[in-house]
Amino acid sequence: MRKPPLYKSFLNALHGIGHMVLQERNFQIELAALAINLVLIFFLKVHATEAAVILAICGAVLAAELMNTAVEKLCDFIHPEFHVKIGLIKDISAGAVMLLALTALIIGLVIYPKYF
Ligand SMILES: Nc1ncnc2c1ncn2[C@@H]1O[C@H](COP(=O)(O)OP(=O)(O)OP(=O)(O)O)[C@@H](O)[C@H]1O
Question: Which residue ranges does UniProt annotate as crossing the membrane (predicted)?
Answer without folding.
Answer: 27-46, 52-71, 92-112
